[in-house]
Amino acid sequence: MYRNLCLLLTGLCANVFMCLPALAQTKPEISLTRFADCGTPQAPTEVNQRFSDIYAYGGLKIQFTFSCYLIKHGDRYLLWDTGHSLRAPLVAPKTSLVDQLAQLGLKPEQIQFVGISHYHADHTGQVDSFPQATLLIGKGDWDAVASPKPAPGVNAAPFAHWVSGGGKVEPLPADKDVFGDGSVVCIPTYGHTPGHQSLRVRTERGEIVLTGDVLDLE
């Protein structure tokens, strides 16, 4: 009996060690790509004018940057923010997000999730280019977008597909572990808008948080 038990334990240990390399190989690749052309910046803007209540920055001017991000998790994709509309006056991107994805060999239908930091036009302008994606949006912002009479500043038009029930939407009241392994998490950061959210991404190069206008300089 003792000999049989030893053989059984030896077999179990062998199976465990055989599985370890397989588990290591199945760890998904996680990467983050920034799309720089999500809007054409206007002339540099005075920091005091937009970001300082106490006018502490003298004549300092900065150039606005409108960015969108692609998160790859194995063979699954999340698009975070969608920049300005191609029809936006003065700040329209020169190249659409669809075309920028095509340069990476991707089609819109390969985007499983489209996440929105908040409902302002410079972050939502091309969201309607991804109708098959599940929309991840803070609940407070979703309530504003889906309102029969959206308030000024709420860029509701691009969300019509989801508001009408044509697409899947997840209004998030709390954290959302997007891929279920803690590598990509939506985090509520209310303030800039009622449902503002940031995105934490853990890559091989470290942990990155995309804040989407939620931080001030002061």
What does this molecule look like?
- With 218 residues, the chain is of the alpha/beta class.
- The protein is 23% helix and 24% strand.
- It is built from 6 helices and 12 strands.
- It has helices spanning 2-25, 47-51, 97-102, 121-124, 139-145, 160-163; strands spanning 30-35, 45-46, 61-62, 68-73, 76-80, 113-116, 134-138, 169-172, 176-177, 184-188, 197-203, 206-210.
- It has a 6-stranded mixed sheet with strand order 1-4-5-6-7-8.
- The longest helix has 24 residues, at 2-25.
- Residues 1-24 have low confidence and may be disordered.
Structural class: alpha/beta
Mean pLDDT: 87
How helix-rich are the residues, as a percent range?
A: 10-25%
Strand/helix succession: HEEHEEEHEHEHHEEEEE
Question: Major sheet, described briefly?
Answer: 6 strands, mixed
Rounded Rg: 22 Å
- Distance separating the two termini: 73 Å
Number of strands: 12
Uncertain spans: 1-24
- The best one-word shape is globular
Count of DSSP-assigned helices: 6
Kindly report the spatial arrangement of strands forming the biggest sheet: 1-4-5-6-7-8
Strand content: 15-25%
Layout: helices, strands, pairs:
Blueprint: H1 2-25, E1 30-35, E2 45-46, H2 47-51, E3 61-62, E4 68-73, E5 76-80, H3 97-102, E6 113-116, H4 121-124, E7 134-138, H5 139-145, H6 160-163, E8 169-172, E9 176-177, E10 184-188, E11 197-203, E12 206-210
Parallel strand pairs: 5-6, 6-7, 7-8
Antiparallel strand pairs: 1-4, 2-3, 4-5, 9-10, 10-11, 11-12
